Description:
Blueprint: E1 7-16, E2 19-29, E3 34-38, H1 45-52, E4 60-65, E5 68-69, H2 74-78, E6 81-84, H3 96-107, H4 111-120, H5 136-148, E7 154-158, H6 166-183, E8 186-190, H7 194-200, E9 203-208, E10 211-217, E11 227-233, H8 237-245, E12 251-256, E13 259-264, H9 269-278, E14 283-288, H10 293-301
Helix pairs in contact: 4-5, 5-6
Amino acid sequence: MSSAPIVRLQNVSKRIGGRTIIDRISLEVGSGEVFGFLGPNGSGKTTTIRMMVGLMGLSDGDIRIGGRSIQTEFSAAVAQVGAIVENPEMYKFLSGYQNLLHFARMSGVSRSRIDEVVGLVGLEGRIHDKVKRYSLGMRQRLGVAQAVMHRPKLLVLDEPTNGLDPAGIRELRDYLRRLAREEGTAVFVSSHLLSEMELMCDRVAILQKGQIIDIRSLRADSDGGTAAQAADVVFDVDRSAAALDALGDMGAARKTDEGLVVHADPNTVAAINRRLVEAGIQVYGIRPKTKSLEDQFLEVTGSESIG
């Protein structure tokens, strides 16, 4: 993430009818980063997104986009945002290209930029077909193309994978990561598909009851702590554990239904394997064992359902 964030939420709050919907949340998203926004039903995700794109005012705090305050420099701030808050709206009896051309004329975008974004989202072969013939996934990709035509610094997507089949979800994920990588766009995405967010995002924030309770990286073990290694030892799990006890503080072993789990630094995996082989134990594999994003989400939210 770049040192200067593209979007910065600073102690943002939203109250409606005396009820606090969003309570002093703060976060930053950098250039080229895909940032996920997770939370149980009613946690305030959509309210936050609507404030970010200028569809709802703030009660307190500020949102700065590209250094511009959405409170005091509204037009300059939202001009740097592209968004799909709900399903993208298109003229279905026009072609995909005609839809983009219509938007380009309103936004002062060149035809060369239209061709550029069409290539970016992989619609070259179908861009002159009428939108009514597009699959839902193709319409989502056309919506992304329209949202990024004016080269926004921030792209905001609320549940962009709704209704997509697995192939469409994978295509959209690949295009969003490509967009972040090639154009340096900061992508802020809300979704209830935790497994997909795990593949798509660099970091995620978890929102609960209007407050951010955790922000974590999905690209590396930022804790710097010991990693869990699962050794698939089929026979003699007790003897395997005893053999590893001799390694001392190199690894603490415990038995599970999977076999033997060893909490150890990844650099000691070779020594663990050698110790087991020397003891005459058949090792069928040693693999990293990490908590999924779903496990982490349920852990920090107390098993509340995502929505």
